[in-house]
C-alpha cells in the first residue's frame, strides 16, 4: 500500500519582482518568468515520477486580482496533469483568497479546490483511499485557529491535512490561521502539507509536518534554493525527496574586508568572491555584505556597485550583484574619531539618549495612517535603533570625508 504525491506551496505566480534597478533586460525577463518556469519544473517532476496526485498548499497567485496571464498559465499546467490523470488538491491562501476580484478562468476537472470551510475530499485508487482535509481563505485576514476545525474522518487508508497558516511564534510572516505542532500531532494525520512560510522546514518527521517553502524566491530576503517535496507514503512510514525548482537564487554573500587596504583591493576581492559563486548552471542575484572595512580612501557604495554590475553577464547562468551593504569596522572608526576631537564624544552620546530616540520616532507613531500598523518598540528594538543610528552616523562621517 503506497501513494506518492508532490507537495508544493506559495507559487506566487506572476510575482512582480520589483526594485531591481539596472538589471539587464534579458535577466529581468528571466526573473519575471521565474515563478512560471519553477512551476513548470514542479509539474515536470509530477509527471516523470508518475505521482498519484499533487497538493498545492495556498498562495497560487501573488495577488488577489489573480492576473489573467497567471491563471491561463496555471490552467495550462493543470491540463498537462489532467492528460496524465494526476489529480490536484489545492487551497487558496492569504494572497489569493476567494474574496478578491478577478476574471474567472475555468480549471479542468482534475483540480479540486477546497472551500472556505474546513472540508474533506477523497482520493481513490484501486482499493486505496486517501482523505484530504483543508480550507481556502475566504478573505485575506484569517486570524482564527482554523486547526480546531480539522477532524480526521475514517475510514480511509491515509489522512492528509492541508493548511496554509503560521506556526505560532514565527514572526517573519503574518500570523494567519495560527497553530502549534502539538495541535497538528493531535489530529492523527499521516502527513501535514503546510504553506505560508516561504522558508523550507520540516517541523516533524513522524508524521511529516512540512513547509516546502516557495518554489522561487521573490526578493533578497527569500534566499537559497527553493523547491517542492516528492513524497511516498506507506503505512507508518514516509519518505521525502526535496526537488529544487528555483530558476534564480537569491543569496546574501558576506565578505570580510578586514585585510584590504585600498579601493582597488576591495574591488578585486569582491570580484573573486562573485566568480566563486557562479557554477555555470544556476543564476544568482546577490546582496554583498562587506564587513570590517577599514580603508582610508573615501568612495561611494554606488560606485563599487556600478563597476561590479558592468561585467559581462550570461543569461543562462549569471551572478548579478543587486545591492551592496558596506559595514565599516565601527570600533576602528570610532576610535579614530574620538582621537580626533572631543566633539565626537558628544555626538555619539546623542544616539544613546532614549528621550531623543522617543522624540525622533514620535511623528511615525502619531501619524493617523501609519500608527495603527505599528506596535510599541521593545527595549531591544530601541537598542538596535540606537546602534543603527550610531553606525549610520559613522558611515555618514566617513562618506563626508570627515
Ligand atoms: Mn505565500
TrEMBL record:
Entry EC no(s): 3.1.-.-
InterPro entries found in the cross-reference section: Calcineurin-like_PHP (IPR004843), DNA_Repair-Maintenance_Comp (IPR050535), Metallo-depent_PP-like (IPR029052), Mre11_N (IPR041796), Pesterase_YhaO (IPR014576)
Keyword flag Kinase: no
Enzyme type, top EC level: hydrolase
Keyword Repressor: no
The organism's place on the tree of life at top rank: Bacteria
A Gene Ontology molecular function term of the record: exonuclease activity
SUPFAM superfamilies: Metallo-dependent phosphatases
Residue stretches making up the Calcineurin-like phosphoesterase domain: 4-199
Keyword set, alphabetical order: Exonuclease, Hydrolase, Nuclease
Protein's UniProt name: DNA repair exonuclease
Species, as recorded: Niallia hominis
Native organism taxonomy: Bacteria, Bacillati, Bacillota, Bacilli, Bacillales
